[in-house]
Amino acid sequence: MGTIYEFSVKKINGEIQSMEDYKGKPLIIVNTASKCGFTSQFKELQELYDEYKEQGLVVLGFPSDNFKDQEFDDIEKTLEFCEINFGVNFPMFAKVDVKGDNTEPLFTYLISQQKGVLTKSVKWNFTKFLIDRKGNVVERFAPQTSPIKMKNAISRVIQ
Q1: CATH label of the domain that carries residue 46
Q2: Highest mean pLDDT: which range of 16-30, 71-85, 101-115, 116-130
Q3: In terms of residue numbers, what domain contains 141?
Q4: Number of domains comprising the chain
Q5: Are the C-beta atoms of residues 135 and 25 closer than 8 Å to each other?
Q6: CB atoms closer than 10 angstroms to residue 85
Q7: How far apart are CA 159 and CA 156, in angstroms?
Q8: Exactly one of 19, 36, 59, 130 is catalytic; which is it?
Q9: Between β-strands 58-63 and 16-18, what pairing exists: parallel, antiparallel or unpaired?
């Protein structure tokens, strides 16, 4: 597989969306969880989206419940929580697995392109992947990395 554009993902309403719809846009793809110690990162992800969306940046959130039951069962509760508490209005998708036998194919690809420091797999919520305008995975950021610390890398991909 060459780029993320070869994948499709499920939207919250169950419809399938091609990643090709984001062709030419820099992306941050992140697995999220509403009840995680890193949940406050939603605020910074939204700030990045607001700051750079005029330059094409899109943040794509993928709720995941792979780590200690930290996501609501009902996706509507997830959306409401994110909007009310953090003002999230960047695209959120259907809940996915980011590790194990049922890993979302997009995340399998992301992991294959940018391995983590201690492990190949996604080790926790809020692992962030930065994608350039050509659909290439250019950098991976650990869950504990503040999204604001991604600004230098974002500046390189929005040019």
Answers
A1: 3.40.30.10
A2: 16-30
A3: 4-158
A4: 1
A5: no
A6: 13
A7: 6
A8: 36
A9: unpaired
